[in-house]
Design a protein that fits this description.
By secondary structure, the chain is an alpha+beta fold. The chain has one domain: Nuclear Transport Factor 2, Chain: A (Roll), CATH 3.10.450. It is 27% helix and 25% strand. The chain is built from two helices and three strands. Strands 1-2-3 form a three-stranded antiparallel sheet, with helices on one face. Strand 1 and strand 2 form a beta hairpin. The termini are far apart.
């Protein structure tokens, strides 16, 4: 069952579902933007990427976060995807993460971009 994220009720009054590719993208987003310790029963879940919005920018920090994201995705989603590359960039109050991965079941390569925060106007 591919439950929609964020959780919603569909027009029939049941849990909304989505297609497999959208569900995988939703799961990647959850790993990216959940901080370790945020989930009570899974204290190691997540990569803490959202915290980068408030961190000073540096190449070393970006490289470390790319490794953390890749490790988190491999740990939690390795049965569904094979991560090809991760790119993290922070600019002002906006964080952009690009993940290139292959869906194991279909061998389709996908590229998804996730944006956290908003640029100041």
């Amino acid at each position: 069952m591919n439950i929609a994220f964020p959780y919603v009720i569909d027009v029939t009054g049941r849990t909304a579902q989505t297609d497999a590719l959208t569900h995988i993208g939703d799961m990647i987003e959850q790993v990216l933007f959940t901080s370790p310790g945020e989930r009570v029963n899974r204290p190691t879940f997540g990569s803490g990427t959202a915290q980068l919005v408030f961190a000073p920018g540096s190449d070393v920090l970006a490289a470390a976060q790319q490794q953390a994201v890749q490790a988190g995705l491999q740990m939690w989603l390795s049965d569904l995807i094979q991560v090809q590359s991760v790119t993290v960039s922070a600019e002002e109050a906006t964080l952009q993460v690009t993940v290139v991965y292959t869906v194991i079941q279909s061998q389709e390569q996908q590229t998804q971009q996730f944006v956290y925060g908003t640029a100041s106007a």
